[in-house]
Amino acid sequence: MAPADASSLPPYGQQRAQPPVQMPVAVPVQPNAFMLMIHWLWDSFTHPSRLQRIPSWWPIVPIALNALVIASTTYAMLSHQYRSMSNLTQGINSFFSDIESSYSVATSIPVTQLFKTAVLMLVLEYAVILMTYAGIRIMGDTSVTFSALHQEIGQKLTTLLAPNLMALVSALIGLNALAIFLLTVSMLFILVLPAARLAVASNHRKLDRTWMWGLTTLLAGVAIAVIVLILIIGGAAEAIGSLF
């Protein structure tokens, strides 16, 4: 299990102090902050369990990227479906051209829906982090800070960029079945994160850790399920309302 806190580690990308030498040596050039973050993203993708000492806002990047890619994939799939619906509607209208009707179906989904979906996904991801943190505190483990857990889960979510990008490409070329499968795998990974993290959390309560894990996982799961239902119902209602 990775350490819960990386504050004792040297800053990511910083060279360790070298022993004094007699001959003059060139001062190593440190990469800029942007390149350091790119290198950290790659390190997080290849070694998601290896924590580094990084700025506290860096984990927001993979979390936000996943939300944006998932929203873009959903938008691409829905756009294909509504384009097909529009073609069907136009065909029916042309067949019954003698029937006048003021009813029409939107030919495209507003781009604002993409950003709204991205925000909803971002809310879901942070709900997972908050529920996990609450579960750890319920088990009595005060050694894990929210910042450390934020980084830990952010690094693990970096690995989801691969299947999510594959899902986006699949949706863009019309392979909706493959895109849905990849998105389902990605969502399942996100939703089981609290249970997986709580399984290795330290239990400082009198109740057996198996019972504590079960109770905290159940509470986190119920809370996340309620949030998911609210997001789905609210998002679906708004999407339907924007089409007509």
Number of domains: 1
Order of helices and strands: HHHHHHH
Apparent shape: globular
Low-confidence stretches: 99-105
User: What is the radius of gyration computed over CA atoms, rounded to a whole number of angstroms?
Assistant: 24 Å
Q: Give the end-to-end Cα distance, rounded to a whole number of Å.
A: 51 Å
Assembly form of the protein: single chain
- The number of distinct β-strands equals 0
Keywords:
single chain, 244 residues, mainly alpha, 66% helix
How is this structure best described in words?
This protein has 244 residues and is mainly α. The chain has one domain (58-93, 105-243). The protein has seven helices and no strands. α2 (60-95) packs parallel to α5 (161-172). The radius of gyration is 24 Å and the shape is globular. The termini are far apart.
Task: Spell out the blueprint of helices and strands.
Blueprint (H helix, E strand, L loop, with lengths): L32 H14 L13 H36 L16 H27 L7 H13 L2 H12 L3 H24 L9 H35 L1
Helix pairs in contact: 2-3, 2-4, 2-5, 3-4, 3-6, 3-7, 5-6, 6-7
